[in-house]
């Protein structure tokens, strides 16, 4: 790629890096925020959940808005909002201010991230160049999360407000660079006369309620009627959304895209893999801090090895994809994840870091092999006019996966905590660790279907090629025409 192409890629990757680092730093800083502002446990939990609620609730709408209203316009607008509310969070004097700031920041990320991904998939030609750009994008986001754990620990030692202030300057620099580098031709060539407002409202409502239901599971089941009611309301709104889209002449979401097997399998794979990854990290963080007494900074440094994918995703993974195809690489990554989480199941009270290291390293390797190729699979073969929607579907799966993974391990941990003392707590941790293992096993099975479909496609193409070659050899005129056409 030329210098300008690399510069554009770095700017787009910079935003996903900031998004990843923002989430990680907030996770590390929340205990200090809670202590300084005197927040209750419930309020502190909602400070974290507000971001997920805004992100998961509007990602589908954000992805489609990029297609309909212009990827450049959506990217620049919502990067500005992300910058502003990230900084405003640092001035918060109460829990409600932080909740509002985090919710709006999540909404901004829901529009900004799919726009950035669709800018990549439409700015680089299909093939190795676009695949490498997508893999660099995916690896950069993971690197932001891994480094954010360490940076968040360091900034929290100075003062938790710096966790909000620190991203402002780099985000402003990225905004200035993006204005110059993103071509204006990105605007849709064909302006739509109508916007599917009923579809947009029903989609956003359904996603918000679904995200709220998942978040409530994470916070416990003591008010299960409210959780059940929100889940049923989400299903009803989802049904209304499907009915609206079927009747709308210019739908927000073309339902046919949801019937494309490779796209659906890629999104399901992302949901399961990210759910397992974040659920595992959540359990390990609790194990190290609550049971072993490690500080937040020690825990962050211990987990930073999982960020090895930031190096491997743009270097090793593209070569493996070219050599074996992304379907097989995804399966290989899932198998590494299965081995990684299985190795940690017998964790003990006195495990050294050396005993934990293989699991942490393998989980980072698995991320390098799975996340980028899944991103390719989720957008491969999708029309350019729907790349934003495809990116929105993938990002929605990622956000719901992470929320479901954390909620599931929390629920299992709570059910398994039947006694008191270190041994009972350790037993509950081991029970919770079965959740990420089960998720990646299921993801492996789904990914094997993609490998089988890829083999079938190659076999069918080979048979068609053989038939065409046979017909050409039997018809000299056709053979001559074919040769002259080739010339």
Automatic annotation (TrEMBL):
It comes from the Bacteria. This is MFS family permease. The keyword Repeat does not apply. Its main location: membrane. Keywords: Antibiotic resistance, Cell membrane, Membrane, Transmembrane, Transmembrane helix, Transport. It holds the Pfam family MFS_1. Residues 8-455 form the Major facilitator superfamily (MFS) profile domain. Residues 465-487 are annotated as: Disordered. GO terms for molecular function: transmembrane transporter activity. GO terms for biological process: response to antibiotic. PROSITE patterns: MFS (PS50850). The chain crosses the membrane at residues 45-63, 75-93, 99-121, 133-156, 162-183, 195-215, 221-244, 264-288, 294-313, 325-345, 351-377, 389-416, 428-449. InterPro entries: MFS, MFS_dom, MFS_trans_sf. The keyword Transmembrane applies. GO terms for cellular component: plasma membrane. It is found in: Cell membrane. It is a multi-pass membrane protein.
């Amino acid at each position: 790629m030329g210098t300008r192409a690399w510069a554009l890629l770095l700017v787009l990757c910079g935003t996903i890096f900031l998004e990843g680092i923002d989430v990680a730093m907030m996770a590390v800083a929340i205990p200090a925020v809670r202590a300084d502002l005197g927040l209750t446990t419930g309020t502190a939990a909602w400070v974290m959940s507000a971001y997920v609620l805004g992100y998961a609730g509007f990602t589908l709408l954000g992805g489609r808005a990029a297609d309909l209203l212009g990827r450049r316009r959506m990217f620049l607008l919502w990067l500005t909002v992300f910058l502003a509310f990230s900084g405003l969070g640092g001035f918060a004097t109460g829990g409600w201010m932080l909740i509002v700031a985090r919710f709006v920041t999540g909404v901004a990320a829901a529009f900004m991230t799919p726009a950035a991904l669709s800018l990549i998939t439409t700015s680089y030609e299909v093939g190795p160049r676009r695949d490498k750009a997508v893999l660099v994008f995916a690896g950069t986001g993971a690197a932001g999360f891994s480094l954010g754990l360490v940076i968040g620990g360091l900034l929290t030692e100075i003062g938790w407000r710096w966790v909000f202030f620190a991203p402002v300057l780099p985000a402003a620099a990225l905004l200035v660079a993006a204005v110059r580098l993103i071509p204006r031709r990105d605007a849709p060539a064909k302006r739509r006369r109508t916007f599917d407002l009923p579809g947009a409202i029903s989609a956003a409502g359904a996603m918000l309620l679904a995200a709220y239901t998942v978040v409530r599971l994470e916070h416990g089941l003591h008010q299960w009627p409210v959780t059940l009611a929100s889940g049923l309301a989400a299903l009803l709104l989802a049904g209304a959304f499907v009915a609206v889209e079927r009747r709308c002449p210019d739908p927000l979401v073309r339902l046919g895209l949801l019937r494309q097997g490779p796209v659906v399998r890629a999104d399901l794979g992302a949901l399961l893999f990210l759910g397992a990854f974040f659920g595992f990290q959540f359990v390990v963080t609790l194990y190290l801090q609550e049971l072993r007494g490690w500080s937040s900074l020690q825990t962050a440094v211990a987990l930073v090895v999982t960020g090895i994918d930031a190096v491997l995703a743009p270097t090793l993974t593209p070569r493996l994809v070219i050599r074996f195809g992304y379907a097989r690489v995804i399966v290989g990554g899932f198998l590494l994840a299965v081995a990684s989480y299985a190795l940690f199941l017998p964790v003990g009270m006195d495990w050294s870091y050396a005993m934990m290291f293989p699991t942490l390293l393998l989980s980072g390797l698995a991320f390098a092999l799975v996340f980028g190729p899944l991103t390719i699979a989720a957008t491969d073969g999708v029309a350019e006019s729907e790349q934003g929607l495809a990116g929105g579907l993938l990002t929605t799966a990622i956000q719901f996966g992470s929320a479901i993974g954390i909620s599931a391990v929390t629920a299992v941990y709570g059910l398994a905590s039947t006694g008191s003392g270190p041994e009972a707590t350790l037993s509950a941790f081991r029970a919770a660790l079965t959740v990420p293992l089960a998720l990646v096993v299921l993801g492996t099975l789904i990914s094997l279907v993609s490998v089988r479909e890829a083999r079938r496609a190659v076999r069918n193409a080979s048979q068609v090629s053989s038939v065409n070659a046979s017909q050409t050899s039997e018809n000299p005129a056709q053979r001559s025409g074919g040769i002259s056409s080739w010339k």
